[in-house]
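Q: Could you fold this chain for me?
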Amino acid sequence: MTIIVKLFAIVREAAGVSELSIDLAEGSTVADARDELPRRLPALAPHLSGCAFAVNRNYSTASARLSDGDEVAVIPPVSGG
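A: Sure. Below is the predicted structure, expressed as C-alpha cells.
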C-alpha cells in the first residue's frame, strides 16, 4: 500500500520536502510509517521522537492501522507564546 506523508515545520526543513509517498506492507501502522521515515530521510531521525502523528487529519496513536491512500501528517511540538 502507498501512503502520503506530510511534513511540517522543523521536520519539513530537515527533510527538504513537504510531502513524500511511502510504500508499506498491508496492515502497517503509524509506528511502521514513523520507523520508515529516517530510513528514507536520515536527517529526520533526531526530530521524530517528540512528534505527533495524524491520519487523515485526525490525531492518531502509533498502533493505528493504515490503509492504502491514507495521509499521515508529522506534527512536531510547538513552543513559544
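A (continued): The domain at 2-75 is CATH 3.10.20.30 (Ubiquitin-like (UB roll)).
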